[in-house]
Here is the input.
Amino acid sequence: MSNSELNRSIEAILMVVDEPVTEIILAQITEFPTDQVMEALQTLATEYHDQGRGFELRQVANGWRFYSHPDLAPVVEKFVLDGQQSRLTQAALETLAVIAYRQPVSRARVSAIRGVNVEAVMKTLVTRGLVEETGLEPETGAILYKTTSFFLEKLGLNKVEDLPALAPFLPDLEGLDDVLASLTD
Here is the structure.
């Protein structure tokens, strides 16, 4: 198989995936060395960018996938939504933010931070595949939750550590560490 065939094979596979595919899996399927597959992915991504295509090839959530070009978001949004809204509520967004920045975290801890019961919101986030169970809290036996690779994919991130820092958005409070420490007791 030539480089041209490798590129075509990668494109064909990435056209049908539901989630990002690693270069290792692509190498296994195409029977090319991983280094060569990685080089082909980077070359394709650069070519698409340089050609000003309506899509991009991006590395996200430890894999590769096609995405519509960000400049075309309004057109794509109009096509996908077609008058239907499936956005998360404010409560769901706040709960998701707490989980993303404090994970792994129990439902009780999220409720304490938000100051309201989050049971129904947690079920919604789990159902939508944005949050998943990740184990038990040793002290209490409570179920711990974390964000999923689907969450990272939707935000266009490779890892949770790529989330923006919260400090610039927080009020300047003296003793914030004491307040946070009291929540963990």
Observations:
- The radius of gyration is 20 Å.
- The longest helix spans residues 34-50.
